[in-house]
Amino acid sequence: MSFDVQRIRKDFPILSRTVHGKPLAFLDSAASAQKPQCVIDAIAELYQRDYANVHRGVHELSLRSTRALEDARAKVAHFLGARDPREIVFVRNTTEAINLVARSFGDTVLGPGDEVLLTEMEHHSNIVPWQMLCERRGARLRVAPIDDRGALPLDAFEALLGARTKLVAVAHVSNVLGTINPIAEIAALCRSRGAALLVDGAQAVPHQRVDVGALGCDFYAFSGHKLFGPTGVGVLWGRAERLAGMPPLYGGGGMIASVRFEKTLYAGVPTRFEAGTPDISGAVGLGAAIDYLEAIGMQNVERYEQELLAYATDALERVPGLRLFGRAPHKAAVFAFEVEGVHPHDVGTILDSEGVAVRAGHHCAQPLMDRFGVPAMVRASLALYNTRADVDQLVRALARVREVFA
Amino acid sequence: MSELRELYQSVILDHNRSPRNRGPVPGANRRAEGHNPLCGDHVVVQARVADDRIEAVGFEGRGCAISTASASLMTEAVKGRSSAEVEKLFEEFRQLVTSDPTREAPVGGLGKLAVFSGVREFPLRVKCATLCWHALQAALEGRSEVSTE
After folding, report:
1. CA–CA distances in Å: residue A342 to residues A94, A355, A401, A403, B16
2. Is B125 within 8 Å of A361 when comparing Cβ atoms?
3. Which among A38, A134, A217, A364 is annotated as catalytic?
4. Does A353 touch chain B (CB under 8 A)?
5. Which of A158, A174, A294, B34 is deepest in the core (most CB within 10 A)?
């Protein structure tokens, strides 16, 4: 199937609106992506026709909702190349998925003196839960450095991977620099040292095909809302053998086999990790987003975005006074930059007045800001619905920044 | 576009380019740090106070044009004032930057600080303009840290 971006844009109703009287150039998809009509419809249709609480219902609507939820789980499993839908745990978002692993897996596996290895490019959500874990267990946090282009040199990473490293947590794609990390190589290193590997996939799944089997990691986490699905639902994929040994994080309804005051028996995987009524419509919306992407084909999305990446890199390099931060050889269409002499917030405000939506700030990656010696950066992040025209609008708006601050 | 010009008035751009009273204050006896956790902006305000009068005041830190110019103009505006006067001025300033942009700006006794009336059109930038004031207020009250969150 050929990739027709104009047809795709029509699927996203919000993209046709104007902002401050200008056409919207939405370049903030790394924060949260816009939703296609089919996702909006799937959620509405669930509530209009099939909604009731899931599991153990004896009536038709409960059965339908349960099926819809489990269908969504199967779609996620297929999308990630998981062997079994039972390896898919529905959570709220990437943050909750990582915290679940830090608690249920980390607390079980880590002892005093053990180590957790991260990289310098991690999002706060892939730093803070590990710091908290290390504090609880008397363990040590190690950080693998990145180079000036924003790539992760594997020799330095490997040197930090020691006998005490029990867990490694790495972003698949950096939310700031766009760097695509070599997960398969990292996973092989981790396996050879007996360390478990968690991959923060929040910024990868919207841009490329992901196959957890081929990657060889132990856990893979992402958020539905960055994958064109609704907010409030996220996914933790865990290798069945890993999940099987993990105690539940939350106790409550839905996660039990039987409850007696003397002793409660927990349900199996993934039910054990899904206490309370789940985000049923969120999961259904995420399932619809995955159907949408599968119909387009993630390889097609990736090929298109890589073309757009080359076009935008070239265009931004020619903007006077603009410094691009992420220059890794393998990267996604995310552009972190600064404009000489103008604070990122001022850049963001002026771009907004031209209808260009970007993000300015530390992007929940303060250690990375420190690494580059800046308090903040401007970030333009692209997705499958962006065009060369969006990039051109950004470049014109950047000229406006220089006018105001001349 | 005029809204943007209204925000980035030449006085603001000038104070951003060449901030006044930037740097440590000799003999300072009041000091507080202000953080805006949303954007990572950070300002340190120092003052030398005698008999409830601000004899000298200065700021350090990195921020956007609005926060830098606000700190610069604030230091000029509060020199020689008492803590009660600073309190009143801050209240007027806060009312100015959060007032209804469709009405006339309540510039009252704000003098030069009236150049911040353009912030009214940009609610996301109000915290940039008020961060230094929060820090100064904290310093005068003997608190050492303040956050906009």
Report:
1. 33, 19, 8, 11, 10
2. no
3. A364
4. yes
5. A174
The answer to whether the peptide bond before residue A153 is cis (omega within 30 degrees of 0) is no
- Under an 8 A CB cutoff, do B122 and A349 touch? yes
pLDDT at A265 over 80: yes
Q: pLDDT for A219-247, tens place per residue?
A: 999 999 999 999 999 999 999 999 999 99
Whether residue A285 is found in the same domain as residue A343: no
A344 and B CB contact within 8 Å = yes
Residues A210 and A355 reside in one and the same domain: no
Tell me the residue type at A234.
G
CB contact under 8 A, A349 and B4: yes
Q: In this structure, what is the dihedral angle of CA atoms B76, B79, B81, B86, given to the nearest 10 degrees?
A: 50
The domain that holds A391 is classified in CATH as 3.90.1150.10
Cβ neighbors of A365 (< 8 A, separation 6 or more) are A121, A122, A123, A124, A175, A176
Rounded CA separation A303/A79 (Å): 18
Nearest residue to A388 via CA among A74, A5, A35: A5
Under 8 Å between Cβ of A266 and A257: yes
Q: Is the pLDDT of residue A1 over 60?
A: no
Q: Which of A20, A22, A339, A345 to mutate to test the interface with B (most CBs of B within 10 A)?
A: A345
Judge contact between A90 and A278, C-beta under 8 A. yes
Q: Considering only CB atoms, which chain A residues are within 8 Å of B38?
A: 361
Q: How many domains does chain B have?
A: 1
**E strand or H helix at A347, and its extent?**
helix A344-353
Residues of A in contact with B125 (CB under 8 A): 345, 349
User: What is the Cα A275 distance to its own chain's centre?
Assistant: 23
Q: Is A38 a catalytic residue?
A: no
Residue A349 token pair: 């405000």
Per the structure, the complete domain to which residue B72 belongs is given by 2-142
Q: How big is the A-B interface in CB pairs under 8 Å?
A: 50
B60 contact A CB<8A? no
